[in-house]
Amino acid sequence: MKSKTIISVIALIIILFLARSMYSDHNLKKVISACILAQAQTSSIEEAKKNCADKFK
To answer: What range does the domain containing 34 cover?
Structure first.
């Protein structure tokens, strides 16, 4: 019984780690897109893309 709990906890940690690594790139793209939209109002789109990419990478 105790070994099943330990194995379950280890499996859960591995699954969470994999999910985090898979979706981190997606989240970064969302943040950069939001930044570009906000800065595009004050500067050119190309300049906004460059500034946002430099800021978050």
So the answer is: 24-57
